[in-house]
Design goal:
Layout (H helix, E strand, L loop, with lengths): L1 H9 L1 E2 L2 E2 H16 L7 H21 L1 H6 L2 H15 L5 H13 L2 H15 L3 H32 L4 H12 L4 H16 L3 H29 L28 H24 L5 H15 L4 H29 L3 H5 L4 H24 L4 H9 L6 H11 L6 H26 L1
Antiparallel strand pairs: 1-2
Length: about 425
């Protein structure tokens, strides 16, 4: 009996033995059935961790799924979306998770922690060289994808206006909160009609674009695993590649120091956003951390503390966050209503064109084509912060969150400006 128990416990799901995990899962099922799950952070986290870890494990080990369909990240997102849509996970539980992820801004906490740790963990010279090359690649790739998408839309008989308004702008607008929602207001102000109706038409492109991006990033990473085009999480070739990540000795105190350090950077970014409201706080956060890293103003102890804290958040909560996103933000009903072959084709064309452009331009600008195609290309077809995490988790490149957010936020803001001009001219 003891041998059986030991054998079962040696079977790990995110470090948790099978028996221990089964006990936690039974508790989860009981408390859901009894309708006693606390409607607070504790209930939300318990739900997200239980569902996220087991679904990610299944997706990462299913033969076809792990190789060609996005692996654990996609399995968690779709699995949780189906559980929510079918009512297997009750609406009250979904609302609890939604309140924690969105209303208490857990997503912001996760992304801010990740950005600060990821950037401070990079080699200083590599960071500066890569940043200077990255933004032109991202912006040019978006421009190329926009032109290709509206061109194909015209060719298949939908007209360039349909391709721009219903696919290109929403899919490259920077997500939902910073993209689709303000974009719907832009359409409302210029074209009339209801902003809510416009938003319902924009969301399918954002959702489907993100799904394609997750699958594309996972597939590209696997197909080029042994290629010289693949930097394996490093943006730029160079002698200092091995110094890109700090690998600090983990201590509890460093985690606390890193938490305060990340939050301080974020609060300064929030204040700057208050003074300059048209610039997203994440843009300020990225800029601040890059400046401090580039100038060497951050002592090594605090760099290591920030990376320690960031790694602890990433390793323990990424799968949980994916579950939260799947339960609350991936609306399969809304998506299914728009799945005409023309629409699907145009979203696919947007992803393929921006990926190829980013890969080729990245190579031209001295970046690894695979990393460039993912962060300067596919990321800009995602659902903003949550989408960025989903894409990077699928291809094991969470350390590139700084570049992902940089291109997504700044590029998305540019797309909104272009959208305003476009509807005033062609509306």
């Amino acid at each position: 009996m003891k041998n059986i128990v030991n054998k079962l416990e040696s079977f790990k799901i995110d470090g948790i033995g099978l028996i221990a995990y089964a006990i936690a899962a039974v508790v989860f099922l009981l408390i859901i059935h009894l309708k006693m799950l606390p409607a607070n952070m504790l209930g939300a986290l318990f739900t997200m961790v239980i569902l996220g870890n087991v679904l990610y494990y299944l997706g990462a080990h299913l033969p076809i799924f792990k190789s060609y369909l996005g692996g654990g990240a996609v399995f968690v997102l779709f699995g949780c979306a189906i559980l929510a849509m079918t009512g297997i996970v009750p609406a009250s539980v979904v609302n609890t998770v939604n309140s924690f992820v969105s209303k208490t801004d857990f997503l912001d906490f996760f992304i801010a922690s990740l950005i600060v740790g990821a950037i401070l963990g990079m080699n200083r010279k590599m960071l500066l060289k890569a940043s200077i090359r990255f933004l032109p690649v991202a912006f040019l790739s978006m421009a190329i994808a926009f032109l290709v998408t509206i061109g194909v839309s015209q060719l298949i008989g939908k007209g360039f206006r349909y391709g721009a308004l219903n696919v290109a702008f929403p899919v490259m607008g920077g997500g939902i909160g910073a993209g689709a929602i303000p974009l719907s207001q832009i359409y409302h102000n210029s074209l009339g009609g209801s902003a809510a109706d416009y938003l319902s038409n924009l969301l399918p492109a954002v959702i489907l674009g993100n799904i394609f991006a997750i699958m594309g990033a996972s597939l590209l990473s696997k197909l080029t695993e042994h290629s010289k085009l693949n930097g394996h999480g490093v943006m730029m070739p160079g002698d200092s590649d091995k110094q890109v990540r700090i690998d600090p000795k983990i201590t509890f105190q460093k985690m606390g120091v890193g938490l305060l350090f990340a939050l301080t950077f974020y609060m300064v970014a929030v204040m700057l956003n208050g003074v300059f409201p048209k610039i997203n706080e994440y843009a300020f956060l990225i800029l601040l951390v890059i400046v401090f890293k580039a100038t060497g103003w951050v002592p090594k102890y605090y760099e290591e503390s920030a990376v320690t804290f960031s790694n602890s958040v990433t390793k323990n909560l990424t799968h949980a966050l994916l579950a939260g996103v799947g339960l609350t933000k991936l609306d399969l009903v809304v998506l299914s209503h728009s799945l005409t072959w023309q629409f699907v084709l145009l979203v696919f064309v947007s992803l393929i064109s921006i990926s190829i452009a980013a890969g080729l331009l990245g190579k031209l600008f001295g970046l690894y084509p695979v990393e460039s195609a993912i962060t300067a290309g596919m990321i800009n077809n995602s659902m903003g912060g949550a989408g960025n995490i989903s894409v990077l988790a699928a291809c094991d490149r969470m350390n590139l969150i700084g570049f992902a957010q940089m291109g997504n936020r700044l590029g998305g803001a540019i797309m909104l400006v272009v959208a305003g001009i476009f509807v005033s001219v062609f509306g």
